[in-house]
Amino acid sequence: MQSTNKDRQAAVAGTFYPSDPTGLRKMVSGFLASAKPNQTNSLTRAILVPHAGYVYSGEVAASGFNQLNPDQVYKRVFIIASSHRYSLGKAAVYTSGDYLTPLGRVPVDIDVSKELLKSSAFTDYPEAHLSEHSIEVQLPFLQCRLKNSFKIVPIIIGTHVPSICQDISDALKPYFTKENLFVISSDFSHYPSYEDANKIDELTAAAFCLNSTTKFLDAIRNSEKLNIPDLATSMCAWPSALTFLYLTQDNSNLIFNKIDYQNSGDNKSYGDKKSVVGYNAICISESQPSGFFLTASDKKALINIARTTLESYIKTRTLPPLNPAGYSDALKAKAGAFVTLTIDKSLRGCIGSFEPNIPLYKLIQEMAVASSTRDSRFQPVKADELESIHIEISVLTPMRKIDNISEIQLGKHGIYIKKGFSSGTFLPQVATETGWSLEEFLGHCARDKAGIGWTGWKSADIYIYEALVFEEDTPKKK
Description:
The chain has helices at 21-34, 54-65, 110-116, 127-130, 133-136, 139-145, 162-172, 194-209, 213-225, 238-248, 296-316, 329-332, 360-373, 428-434, 438-450, and strands spanning 44-49, 76-82, 91-93, 99-101, 104-106, 122-124, 151-157, 180-185, 254-263, 278-286, 337-343, 346-353, 389-396, 400-402, 414-419, 422-426, 461-465, 467-471.
């Protein structure tokens, strides 16, 4: 039997949330009742929720926890947080006992924690847990939301090195299964103005929802270059979010959905709009297997088709033969797609098709040729550029007409604007790469792509679509 003097005592009860059990349960239950309701019919595999004091972030956190089916049985809940105090160069698990809150004991799966210690990316350092609030504040929500018993695996990451985050993720991969829930604990922007927080938090959340470690890291780094006044960070626990994305980025069956957003300036009693902290709730659920998706092998095959076509056509003006015998049904299906070429992250060509009448693998070959030789914005690609060219492919879902631009989620949805005989489109990733707001996204598409003026979208038909976006593992370099 574990000794209670080794249990991790509640450290922020009475400051971040009420210490009285009755008052705490009443507060959390009230948040859950007033927050955004469950928006998914699928199994929730993970949520990203804030970890500030409940008066500031409790409602947004509740929106995230509401995405959990109260009757769902989760064997374990892995809570991934980043240390506010320690630089460990790895992640710290807790093996000394259980976590305690005013609502009672939360059992720690010590066996799993000790198993993780076999990886050099983990350490048994209880001091990192004792005064850290970012795991503790999630527990009362779990205690109030889930009806069935569960154990937690509390993980505190003490590094900002992406390669170490990947090592941590590698050790966690055997546990990223449907029987376990993952909770990522993170606030977003720290200390910009209210208006700046709304913009940068939208971009960071959109990048996270792309389920790409590369694009997420680019967004974190690009936010530093925006020189936003007083911005200390665009996401305080981005290493925790990055670690999670290393787990998920090859899984095309996962759906990332932004559920709720506020910042501390929205609090009418305590909010200061001059200097705020941002809070997002994001749900990651399992899509139905019947939908169109590409496996990692499918994506690799399409990238290879694009690369070999590019090399052959630019050098000899001939197309390499394709042998569909070994291709999956997904590669033989008809789907829209774009091929994007970049050099040092600068656009070098991009052409695609929405409604093809040929199989996907053939379309990718055609678009590889078109993007390298027929994009009117650029001169044709030359042979001496091939080693510098980086290939990205976007396979499109069917378009859907919308009546309200509030349906557009930046980073998730591409847009197609049509007015009369004029039309233009932007792929989903354009919003993340440019940092545009929603109105800028629409305005640039209407003016620069459709040619109907900056506000032309207001009287045009607007369609949205999603894209399965993937790229070469490593950019080619001279």
